[in-house]
């Protein structure tokens, strides 16, 4: 259910990117902390030939390189 609700953002991103550039992006990335944002963004692009990258925070504090 969450995937389907969050995928609205991914479908809109895909649609607007195609309208603006006439082609698909080389890569799609999203934060993967809990997974709901990323699966929603990635779902519309899963059948397209591109890199899909999940980014997660790493570190111990709020300082750069901490």
Largest sheet: 2 strands, parallel
What count of domains describes the coordinates? 1
Count helical runs.
2
Query: Which structural class do you get from the secondary structure elements?
Result: alpha+beta
Could you spell the SSE succession in H and E letters? Answer: HEHE
Mean pLDDT across all residues, rounded?
Answer: 88
DSSP E strands, number: 2
**What is the distance, rounded to the nearest whole angstrom, between the alpha carbons of the first and last residues?**
36 Å
The Cα radius of gyration reads 14 Å
Beta-strand percentage?
15-25%
* Poorly predicted segments: none
Fraction in helix: 40-55%
The assembly state of the depicted protein chains is single chain
Question: How are the strands ordered across the major sheet?
Answer: 1-2
| Overall geometric form | globular
GO molecular function, one term: tryptophan synthase activity
Keywords: Pyridoxal phosphate
InterPro entries: Trp_synth_beta/beta-like, TrpB-like_PALP_sf
Cofactor: pyridoxal 5'-phosphate
In short:
By secondary structure, this protein is an alpha+beta fold. 41% of the residues lie in helices and 15% in strands. It has one domain.
């Amino acid at each position: 259910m969450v995937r389907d609700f969050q995928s609205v953002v991914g479908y809109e991103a895909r649609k607007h990117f195609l309208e603006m550039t006439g082609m698909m992006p080389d890569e799609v990335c999203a934060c993967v902390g809990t997974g709901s944002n990323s699966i929603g963004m990635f779902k519309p692009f899963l059948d397209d030939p591109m890199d899909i990258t999940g980014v997660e925070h790493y570190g111990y504090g709020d300082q750069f390189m901490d």
